[in-house]
């Protein structure tokens, strides 16, 4: 790994080229629900709405349009992902995670226990149970909640 390699958006501390990018390029398939979950988060960060949609279970694809996924991805600044727990068997799996992002001037945490199923030999995202976390309104002179110790206006502010 070279020092200027782009680190993956999913928080793995691996280069994007060795982590989620091969899944986005479809040169590799995720072997575990956690890999798929990470690839979905990274896909939001790089605004790859097609990947996000295709990684849904077939029955869920109709209700998640590419334009809606794109609108959401475009209106957020994604900070990081924390995978708290995950597991799987031959047919189903789960990932418990927290995703951190800004939506306008709100700092948001998505805490979810998500379910995955295998379809045609591939892991797909079925649905998730969300634990409500209050969004935090950030003002320009506040310390940025991303952990940079900079003021919000000099960091993640739009
Ligand atoms: Zn990754
Ligand atoms: Zn920040």
List the helices and strands and how they pair.
Blueprint: H1 21-24, H2 33-45, H3 49-54, H4 58-61, H5 66-74, E1 76-88, E2 92-103, E3 106-119, E4 122-131, E5 136-137
Antiparallel strand pairs: 1-2, 2-3, 3-4, 3-5
The structure holds zinc ion (ZN) (2 copies).
The level of helicity is: 10-25%
Question: End-to-end span in angstroms?
Answer: 32 Å
For this structure, the CATH topology is: Nuclear Transport Factor 2, Chain: A
Beta fraction: 25-35%
Q: Please tell me the total number of domains.
A: 1
Bound molecules: zinc ion
Helix count, per DSSP?
5
The level 1 CATH classification is Alpha Beta
Q: How confident overall, as mean pLDDT?
A: 95
Computed Rg: 16 Å
- Category by helix and strand content: alpha+beta
Uncertain segments are none
Largest sheet: 5 strands, antiparallel
Number of strands: 5
Pfam families: SEC-C, YchJ_M-like
InterPro entries: NTF2-like_dom_sf, SEC_C_motif, YchJ-like_M
Domain YchJ-like middle NTF2-like: 32-128
Protein name: YchJ-like middle NTF2-like domain-containing protein
Q: What characteristics describe this protein?
A:
alpha+beta, SEC_C_motif, 5 helices, 5 strands, single chain, Nuclear Transport Factor 2, Chain: A, NTF2-like_dom_sf, binds zinc ion, 158 residues, YchJ-like_M, five-stranded antiparallel β-sheet
